[in-house]
Specification:
Mannose-Binding Protein A, Chain A; 4-stranded antiparallel sheet; alpha+beta; 195 residues; globular; 10 strands
Length: 195
């Protein structure tokens, strides 16, 4: 009977994985002789967690996103909000991903025209890196909005995007609140640790 319960649990985990839940199965056994009347012990442990945080929208093959239209007063507050969700500020890695964010922006016409993303040049002016320390030019997407970056007033060090597309440099802690995008990685594509 234990075998059938475990089989059901494994089947449940596979089915649930298709409905945005992820499960880890751990099985151990001793003296697993299937034939004859030799007793054996089979123990299993299944744990799971919800993959999709509340309010995130799935775009198949790209990722989960949440647009905070009310924004954050600073870039650092936006970083913290995403981290509290178990996510990170979005990093655009392709034209497809930019199109996804533009489509989300289009549903929110009253949001300010610039939204924080997960890159900056805080350490060295003009040397843009992601929140994971990767050079922006290595992410697969580096299409700037015309005339950007411009480091307006000598104080635009945080990354953003324009509602109609293109990257921008933006104030990290002035003239907020600024909307921002959080990204939650697809299963099997864990995000690097934020340094």
């Amino acid at each position: 009977m234990t075998f059938w319960v475990l089989l059901f649990l494994v089947m449940f985990s596979c089915t649930s994985a298709l409905t945005e839940r992820q499960f880890q199965v751990s099985i151990s056994c001793s003296k697993c002789e299937v034939g004859g009347l030799t007793p054996f012990t089979l123990t299993g442990n299944i744990s799971g967690n919800n993959i999709k945080p509340t309010g995130y929208e799935l775009f198949h093959g790209v990722g989960y996103y949440k647009f905070y239209t009310e924004g954050a007063m600073t870039y650092y507050q936006a970083l913290s909000t995403c981290k509290n969700d178990g996510a990170h500020l979005a990093i655009i890695n392709s034209q497809t991903e930019e199109e996804v964010l533009k489509s989300i922006y289009a549903k929110n016409p009253s949001a300010k025209p610039w939204a924080y993303l997960g890159f900056n040049d805080i350490e060295k002016e003009g040397d843009y890196v992601t929140i994971f320390g990767e050079r922006l030019c290595d992410t697969g997407f580096m299409k700037w909005h015309p005339g950007k970056p411009d480091n307006h007033e000598g104080n635009e060090d945080c990354g953003s995007m324009f509602r109609h597309g293109g990257l921008n440099d933006l104030y990290c802690d002035k003239h907020g609140p600024w909307p921002f995008f959080c990204e939650y990685e697809l299963p099997g594509h864990p995000s690097p640790k934020i340094s």
